[in-house]
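Researcher: Checking consistency across runs. Here is PhnB protein again:
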Amino acid sequence: MTTRLNPYISFRDTAREALEFYHGVFGGDLNMNTFAEFQMSEDPADADKIMHGQLDAPNGMTLMAADTPSSMDVQDTSNITISLSGDDESQLRGFWDKLADGGSVTVPLEMAPWGDHFGQLTDRFGVAWMVNIAGQGGQGGQGS
């Protein structure tokens, strides 16, 4: 198996709703398993929460998420931002528009000094995103 790196987001009681939202943004195959399905819930209130969810988008992107059990503290993800970059302007603007719905834009998606279109937002679930659309020069300034 090839080594992969992909985001795994921790939520408190909203993983199902968040994963369904991201499924609407990115499409693909969504699989979710609850704590009860794997007999992993010590607290009955956690039984129907998501122990593991995985979204495999048709373009090869993978996003994973889970609810943090009530007996554990939620991880602080304020120092993490998920970056989407590439040269498919239509696709990336579509992702931007859907992620921004119900969220807050911190940097509008517009021409950046490096020649790409760039923006930042926090979605309705508190997850930070950056979108970089490569300019004419194809440099993709943010890691493309």
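Researcher: Does this match what you'd expect to see?
Model: One thing to look at in this run: The chain has two helices and eight strands.
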